[in-house]
Amino acid sequence: MKARYWPMMALFCPLAMAGELHLPEGFYATAVNGQAVSPHQNRLNLGSGRQVVTLRYANPYLFHKEFHEVLVSAPLYLVFDASNQHYRISATLPTELEAARRFARNPEFSLTSQQQPIPYQTYRYNQAVNALLSR
Question: Which of 92, 87, 93 is nearest to 117 (CA)?
Fold first, then answer.
């Protein structure tokens, strides 16, 4: 009889979600805290506490109907502490190809919640591993 009521009890349990991260056009995530996510999502569910979001910048540039170049950054590891809030990544994306190439080498963005800046760190390439090993 207890097993019969268990699914209903799950409805009343507090959720482990702390908030949501909104990604702008031009950015996509591949993982949240090591768990793969769909690169097509522009909103990511977050747990509470320390979050590590693996991001990439990607932008296609069309020169002609037959010629294009897709710029993709190396993975960026966004690290921040989340609480029960909605977070937003904002970036000014370049419109010219050469500026976009520079941006892909070193994407810059801000992280906000309720229009207030949120402290975060970003790690590129081996910086994430080096930061963990130095602790």
Answer: 87
